[in-house]
Structures are given as structure tokens and as C-alpha cells.
Amino acid sequence: MIAPGEVWLVGAGPGDPDLLTRKAERLIRAASVVFYDALVGPDVLALARAETRLVSVGKRVGRHSKDQRTICALIIEAALAGERVVRLKGGDPSVFGRSMEELDACRAAGIPVRICPGITAAIAAAASLGTSLTLRGTARQVTFVTAHVRKGEKLDLDWASLAAAQTTLAVYMGKGAAPEVATQLLAHGLPGDTPVACIESASLPEERQFCTRLDLLPMAARLAMGDGPVILLIGAVAAGPARRGSVFSQPAPRLRPASQRSSPA
Ligand code: SAH
């Protein structure tokens, strides 16, 4: 399924191997070499054949083991040597995954490159929390945003649009920046009691989650998070089950006959 000299960028999902696509699993089994990120779960890597070369090109905040240019060069070198190359990325390759650099580099070198999507962290986190990223009439849009900044730089985001009403914000790489995210969103008008859920290592056995509110996030973030990757979900959908339950414990609306109902948005 991978021709020699071909490259696949493959989404490894949030960590639980059962959340891989069947195609991703087949590609991992077919690869002769797998270049993988730090966030790819060990049980996902365990699916590779014994003879497959596994190469860590992991990047974690503050611990860049290989820079992006080196990673591109390694992938191209392997493809030109006739290997069946899988580039395995946590979550989905197209979400904060630097996949464009790798796609461009392969294309510039004349190497066929394709993408297999994966479940991104925001989706996995919502599933773990038992919530929905959208809520009819309450959360009409979902924004994926990264709060990662290079050392010494300021977090330069369009806070006014991020603080829009009726939005679910999924903040990637936001662990260190959680206090500033909270301060800025409050300053731009989000209420202090806006629900926030912090989900660490979603889908993995060591998963942890806690629900708080925006004005308490700075303190909660310092106290409650460990070493794993963390995603923040901010907005009505992030309320803990008790509070969320109250939304639905209101008297059920009387249903109109189907012929008079408008179709759901
Ligand atoms: N391409 C990945 C995101 C890479 S950026 C995806 O689609 O999910 C890395 C960030 O993703 C982490 O800092 C964290 O915010 C988030 N993340 C990745 N895996 C996660 C997991 N299992 N649980 C919680 N957050 C996760």
C-alpha cells in the first residue's frame, strides 16, 4: 500500500491505538521506516513490524530534538533510498503539525506524498469529557488555536475574536500560557464563570481532566497539570457534567408536529 520511495503523513490520533483509522494501521504495518513525534503513543508504535525502523524526531516544548529542516531532510533521504516512509504525527497531521513544510519539501524533491487523517486532540478531549464541541444555539462555532510561543516572544493572538460569544475554544499547547489566555479572554469580555476543561493525555490510561472557570484557570493550571500534553476547552460545552446536566434538566420543550418543525441547522 506504500510504494517504495513514497511518503505518507499519517495521523496517529491522541494516543489510544483503538482511535487510529484502519488505514493508518495498515500504513504503519506497511512502512519500512517510521519517523514519529514525541506525542505518538507507544502502543501505536508497537503496531509496526519488528523489522521496521522507528526513528524518533520528537519535539516537545523546550526540547527540540530535531529541527524541522532536519526532519524534512531525513524523510526525503529515506524516500530517495527507496524506503516506504511513514511520517507519524500525533492527532491529525493538518492541525498544528507542521505538515505543510514536509509536504512542500517532498513535492519539491519530486517525491509522492499523501496524507492519512487522524483524530485531533480537541475531538478526543470532547469525547473523553462526554460533551459535544458544538451546542445547538449555544456554541455555534469551534476555534482551534495554539497558545505556543517561541521563547522570548509575546502571545500575539486576536483576542477580541477569540472572546466571541457562542464559541468553543480549543487551545492547543496552552499549558504554560493558560494564565495569560485567561487574563486576555477576561479582558476582552468573556465572563469569569465561563467553563474551562483541561484535559491531559486524552484517551491514554494516564488521562486526567478537571473542570474549572476562566477566572480560576491561572491557579488551577498551576496546581493541577502534570507532564502530559494538555488541551483546554473553553466555553459552555466545557462545563462539568453536573452543570451541563442543568442545561438539559429544564422542562423539555413541547414538540411541534414534524410537519411544522424546521430542519436542524
Ligand atoms: N496534531 C496534533 C496537535 C499537535 S500540537 C493534533 O491534531 O492533536 C501538540 C498539542 O496537542 C499539545 O500541546 C496538546 O495541546 C495537544 N494534544 C495532543 N495530544 C493530546 C492528548 N492526548 N491529550 C491532550 N492534548 C493533546
TrEMBL record:
Pfam family, one: TP_methylase
Superkingdom classification of source: Bacteria
EC number: 2.1.1.107
Single GO molecular function: uroporphyrin-III C-methyltransferase activity
CDD domains: SUMT
Occurrences of domain Tetrapyrrole methylase (ranges): 7-215
Pathways involved: Porphyrin-containing compound metabolism; siroheme biosynthesis; precorrin-2 from uroporphyrinogen III: step 1/1
Spans annotated as Disordered: 245-265
Chain coiled-coil ranges: none
InterPro entries attached to this UniProt entry: 4pyrrol_Mease (IPR000878), 4pyrrol_Methylase_sf (IPR035996), 4pyrrole_Mease_sub1 (IPR014777), 4pyrrole_Mease_sub2 (IPR014776), CobA/CysG_C (IPR006366), Siro_Cobalamin_biosynth (IPR050161)
UniProt entry keywords in alphabetical sequence: Methyltransferase, Porphyrin biosynthesis, S-adenosyl-L-methionine, Transferase
Gene Ontology process terms (BP): methylation
Record-linked PANTHER family: S-ADENOSYL-L-METHIONINE-DEPENDENT UROPORPHYRINOGEN III METHYLTRANSFERASE, CHLOROPLASTIC, SIROHEME SYNTHASE-RELATED
Name the record gives this protein: uroporphyrinogen-III C-methyltransferase
Organism of this sequence: Alteraurantiacibacter lauratis
Gene, per the UniProt record: cobA
